[in-house]
Amino acid sequence: MTHWKLSHILKDMRPLAVLPDWLLFYGNGAIYKVGHDLQHPLLLCRLPAADFVAQLAKYFRIIDRVLRSSPSHAVVFDDALFVARRSEIWRCDLNNGHLSFDFLIPDGRRSLGFGQVSNSDGTKELVFGEYFSNPTRLPVRIWGRKAGTAKWLQRAEFGAGEIEHVHAVSCANGQVNMLTGDFGEAAGIWISDTEYSSLRPLARGQQAFRAAWMESIDDRVFMATDTQLESNRLYEFRMGNGAGVALQPLAELGGSSIYAGRGPKEIFFSTTVECGEPTGNFVRDLLETRPGPGMLSSKAFLMTVDGHGLVSELYSAEKDFWPFRLAQFGTFIFPSGTMPPDTLYTYGVALKGVDGCCLVFHRSTQN
pLDDT tier at 241 (50, 70, 90 boundaries)? Predict the structure, then answer.
């Protein structure tokens, strides 16, 4: 029997990306690399603070949470670490630690995560879709940066009225999958060829099609719903007969699921504790402390699913008392890349006892 044991809780350490021999992490304004023994970290580069208040965020966690001043996600691509912070994308050369400003997402928009696409000519491309509050459904863009180049280009655009934002972009079997949100017809799964010659909705208009991640193990594809409006589930995703999709439910979840990470033999994912649909009252929405109707628990759960579809719960923590939108939802976030065998890194956000901490788990086998 396999059991995951919590080995370390490391404060002020945000895991960003996993490599075979290294963990890349952020802490107090700088990016470091450290071996998987977590001994003797080496400084790679320092991210500049935007202003004096952002400088304070390095020392006061609640300011950091409110301002979202720390990196939200990162990925290793083309011998560099690409780091997203609000609307900024920074590039840290892994060969020499040189940091450069790489891209400013236009109009103050952001990204929820990076994806990688293999173009028709075999070129690798780093991609993301714009993520921002968009109740009027303005056009939303997909951006890409091809390996060996130094420029971000607009690769596709969802027209006005189609979606509110993009949660994730991924590639499998020569097809690009785009997960969109949030409400009504905006919630959906879209597909395209790898050159984005057309965008086509595969399924839309139901909260069951609202997801923030889609991952595969061998030929099995898994996704989880990300809705505060109704109960959430983990599904196995299959193409239906003819057009459309078939979703095979595997487990009911305690809350919405926004984040996932990869292991050699499994997918790690978390649930989130978040508030309900916005009311339109800015102050009320910002200070909301009541969970949405889709939250079945006040805890965020750390979970895993393996290639056989077996779902396990590894750990949980209670949401703290700070308002959801002001100071972030309660959840666990994962570094990009594939975890080392028998090791899991995750990061607690807005959770009692583990907020702002890297949690390290090790797998053991019990008789």
Answer: low
